[in-house]
Amino acid sequence: MSQRAAQILSLDCAAASNHATKQDVQTMNYHPDPSLLLCSGPEQGVLEITLNRPQVRNALSTPLLNALVTLLQQAEQDDAVRVVLLSGGEKVFAAGADLNEMASKDMPAVLLEQRPQRFADIARFPKPLIAAVCGYALGGGCELAMHADIIIAGESAGFGQPEIKLGIIPGAGGTQRLIRSVGKALAMKMVLSGEIIRATEALRAGLVAEVTADEQCLSRARELAGTIATQAPLALRLAKAALLAAAETPLAAGLALERAHFVTLAASADRQEGIAAFLEKRPPQWLGR
After folding, report:
1. 195 is catalytic
2. Tens-place pLDDT, residues 113-146
3. Superfamily of domain 1-26+233-289
4. Catalytic pick from 97, 145, 229, 239?
5. What is the residue extent of each domain of the chain?
6. Is 140 one of the catalytic residues?
7. Sorting pLDDT into bands at 50, 70 and 90, what band is 29?
């Protein structure tokens, strides 16, 4: 096993162990600044977060990213949350970074800003994260959507990295995540031209998982989140970890990591419950340990 795979295994097993030993965890209260985010739930295992700066098309200011990370950190520690659903409302997901904030920063300020750390925090969120995208997801908005594990897109959705038109390039993973999702040819076209692709092309390219009618996008994302939330919590975390590691490790190391997670779950009460429930033809009652 490579050193990188061993590090991932150590971190993921530690996270699963810490989660398994929690007892009597109370549901947390989620109260973000409503001028930045709206939050509802958790309900049946799903916490919903909505970007809420419609007057600037949900521009991703640093305060908004800070608030989002705070919610995700709370959700990570909350056993009542098994899945997080992130949306931007019915007309736009996020049209990019806050240009007024960006224009006020010189190079030293850009070097010292918190945004890279906030996106790294989002990437480390260990539970399933679903994005429901209607309207535009551009620049930082596209990068934020790509941090989700699954994107459900309304038919009006448009994805793009138009930073080149401002004399800059993507700065929150747009060049790296996009090429891994859609391949070199389309990523080059999108980043170098700034052109937007529509939902159907994003589906063909593998950027999104499903395309629905706009009015069904959020409801379909909720349905999928609800389905995922019925699964065993520890298995969800380790399945996500193994899948994400596949992009960063050679096949042999990835297979070893997958097997190690499989063995880790063999000691869980949820594995015993899952097998017993299947044999007894009843719904499982997951314990999260």
Report:
1. no
2. 787 899 999 999 999 999 999 999 999 999 999 9
3. Lyase 2-enoyl-coa Hydratase, Chain  A, domain 2 (1.10.12.10)
4. 97
5. 1-26+233-289, 31-229
6. yes
7. confident
Tell me: pLDDT of 20 over 60.
no
pTM for the complete prediction? 0.86
191-241 pLDDT tens trace: 999 999 999 999 999 999 999 999 999 999 999 999 999 999 999 999 999
Cβ atoms of 136 and 196 within 8 Å: the answer is yes
Under CATH, to which class is 31-229 assigned? alpha beta
| Active site (annotated) includes residue 276 | no
**Domains 1-26+233-289 and 31-229 in one fold:** no
Q: What is the pLDDT of residue 106?
A: 59
Catalytic residue list contains 155: no
Say whether pLDDT at 18 is over 80.
Answer: no
Helix (H, G, I), strand (E, B) or coil at 38: strand
**Residue of 143, 154, 174, 253 marked active site:** 143
Beta carbons within 8 Å of 239's beta carbon, 6+ residues apart: 261
Q: Which of 41, 139, 140, 171 is catalytic?
A: 140
Q: How are the residues of the chain apportioned to helix, strand and coil, as percentages rounded to the nearest 5?
A: 55, 15, 35
CA separation for the pair 96, 175 (Å, rounded): 15
First and final C-alpha spacing in the chain? 26
Of the residues 67, 145, 148, 163, which is catalytic?
163
Query: What is the distance between the alpha carbons of residues 183 and 256, in angstroms, rounded to a whole number?
Result: 26
Enumerate residues 6+ apart whose C-beta is below 8 A from 92: 54, 57, 58, 134, 135, 136
**Per-chain mean pLDDT for the chain:** 88
